[in-house]
Every structure is written in structure tokens, then in C-alpha cells.
Design brief:
Blueprint (H helix, E strand, L loop, with lengths): L2 E5 L3 H12 L3 E4 L6 H10 L2 E2 L3 H7 L2 E4 L6 H15 L4 E4 L5 H13 L4 E7 L9 E6 L14 E5 L6 H29 L3 H11 L1 H10 L4 H20 L5 H14 L17 H20 L1
Parallel strand pairs: 1-2, 1-4, 2-3, 4-5, 5-6, 7-8
Antiparallel strand pairs: 6-7
Helix pairs in contact: 1-2, 3-4, 4-5, 6-9, 6-10, 6-11, 9-10
Length: 298
């Protein structure tokens, strides 16, 4: 049995923690300064609260960082400080949606504290839903993480290069979440320009699979939009550093900023109204543009 620290216990983190606990490991987190929702999800998953990050580090053999990408580097610094204070250096696994160069920057922070570092990228829904979640890992110690594999959590090693797992995650999310923002943009454009009914009729006839995807995904995007803004900036950085245009995913970040400002952004995945239609969601998103226009007029 290993002790695994999971920070933080959001939608993905608590589900990863739950399946690792069910696999016979002890799982802890640090709820100091965290939200009531994180605490509730941790309790639901049977994850023990160590209190402070220092206390979690003192207990953990492995520390999984699972959080919005914008917070990943600051958390790595805090974890390195906690390791120094605790006198322990658990293996640090960054599982966040970050650019490969961001991962290498975090690796330098963590290894400067004499802790092993593994680059990771999670693809798929949280464990326990639909098909197994895939955790891709890379780095000199990546193969050793295979012991954590579960029926609903595959661990896929990609070699010893720090950044390889993050690169794969960036390419995958560039397609999936980038497509979500393009779908939303097109639907809002059709509605705002007065051709929504005709657009839907054409999509029903010529692109039924794409319309089904829109109806399945777009109405709930606002619940995740705020934490996906940073992910789009990380994707833009990835492509910029590869000599490719960052502008597509900078635009995707702008779309998520708009959705995060909509009335639907107050929802979570658990509280989202699953009876909402695609048209109702688009109407709610368009209120942000109406409010902006009103503010500009004032």
C-alpha cells in the first residue's frame, strides 16, 4: 500500500483519488484553503484530509497535481516549499493540461527540491464514467507509475522525455475543446445573424453527426469554461513554440471567457440543468454580448 496525495479534489481529482483508494492505496489531500465543494467531493471519495500541504507531503509517497493549468506552476512552488519544510520528497506527478515547456519549467522547480518528477496528461472523463480514463506519463521515473493502474484508470508510459505526455494532451485537447468552441461560435453566429433555423435544418440533413455533438456538448460548456481558459493558452503556447499559429486557440480562450461570463457559468457538472436545449444555451450565451453592447452604449 502506498500513500498518494491528490491535490486538488475537484471533478477529476476526487474521482482519481477514489479509484486509487479502491485499489488498496491510502489517499490524502490538503483541504486547507479549499472550497466547501472540494471538501465534499473528497469526503464522497473517501479521501482523508491531511490538513495542510506540508502535512500531506509528509505522508505521501506520490503527489498528484490535478488542477486548472493556470495554477500548476504556483502549486509546484508551494509543493517544493512544503517538501523542504517536511523533509520529504515524494514523487511529484503533474497531471495538468499544460504546454510541454511549462512542464519542463515545473520539473526544474520540483527537481531543485530533490524530488522525482513525472510529466503527465489525463485524457477522458473522470474514472468511473464511460471508458477508462487514460493517464499518459513520461520522464525517467514514468514506468514506475504503472503500479497505480486500475480497471478505470490506464497508465500509459511514453518514455523518458519530460514533456512528451503533456504534448500529447495538448494536441488532443486542441482538437476536442477547440472543436467545442468552434461549434459554439458557429451556433452563436447563426443565431445572432438570423439564420439559426435554416442552419439547423441544413445540419440535420447534411451534418447530423456534428449536430448531435453540438446538442450533446454545447449546453454544458459554461460549467467548465473558466478552468479551460488557461488550457487554451497552454495549447497556444505549445503551437507557438512548434512554429505554428497560436491564434486559433487564443480565439478558443476568448470563447471560453465569454461562456464563463454567462449566466450558466454558476452551474457545476453536478448541478447543470440536463433538460436544457441547445437553443436555450445559445440564448444564454448571447446575453453576454447583449450586456457588453449595453455597457458600451452607456
Amino acid at each position: 500500500m502506498m500513500t498518494i496525495g491528490v491535490i486538488s479534489t475537484g471533478d477529476m481529482g476526487h474521482a482519481v483519488g477514489r479509484t486509487l483508494r479502491e485499489g488498496g492505496n491510502r489517499v490524502v489531500t490538503a483541504l486547507e484553503g479549499r472550497s466547501a465543494r472540494s471538501a465534499a467531493l473528497a469526503a464522497e471519495a473517501g479521501i482523508a484530509d491531511a490538513g495542510t500541504l506540508r502535512d500531506a507531503v509528509a505522508e505521501a509517497d506520490i503527489l498528484l497535481s490535478i488542477m486548472p493549468p493556470a495554477a500548476a506552476k504556483d502549486f509546484a512552488r508551494a509543493a517544493a516549499e512544503a517538501m523542504a519544510a517536511a523533509g520529504r520528497t515524494p514523487t511529484f506527478v503533474d497531471c495538468n493540461a499544460i504546454a510541454p515547456e511549462t512542464s519542463r519549467e515545473i520539473a526544474r522547480i520540483v527537481t531543485a527540491a530533490d524530488a522525482p518528477y513525472i510529466d503527465g496528461g489525463i485524457i477522458g472523463a473522470p474514472p468511473g464514467r464511460r471508458s477508462p480514463t487514460r493517464l499518459y506519463v513520461s520522464g525517467p521515473q514514468a514506468e514506475g507509475l504503472a503500479a497505480l493502474a486500475r480497471p478505470d484508470l490506464r497508465i500509459i508510459a511514453m518514455g523518458t522525455e519530460i514533456g512528451a505526455a503533456s504534448t500529447l494532451k495538448m494536441c488532443y485537447a486542441a482538437l476536442t475543446k477547440g472543436t467545442m468552441t468552434l461549434d459554439t461560435l458557429v451556433l452563436m453566429g447563426a443565431a445572432r445573424l438570423g439564420v439559426a433555423e435554416e442552419f439547423r435544418a441544413e445540419m440535420t440533413e447534411s451534418q447530423p453527426a456534428a449536430l448531435e455533438r453540438m446538442e450533446r456538448m454545447v449546453p454544458w460548456l459554461a460549467a467548465d469554461a473558466e478552468r479551460w481558459i488557461g488550457e487554451m493558452h497552454e495549447i497556444a503556447r505549445t503551437f507557438r513554440e512548434a512554429g505554428l499559429t497560436p491564434r486559433i486557440h487564443e480565439g478558443a480562450a476568448e470563447m471560453f471567457e465569454l461562456l464563463a461570463a454567462s449566466p450558466l457559468a454558476a452551474e457545476t457538472r453536478q448541478t447543470a440543468d440536463r433538460t436544457r436545449t441547445l437553443d436555450a444555451a445559445i440564448a444564454a450565451f448571447l446575453t453576454v454580448l447583449s450586456a457588453s453592447a449595453s455597457d458600451a452604449a452607456d
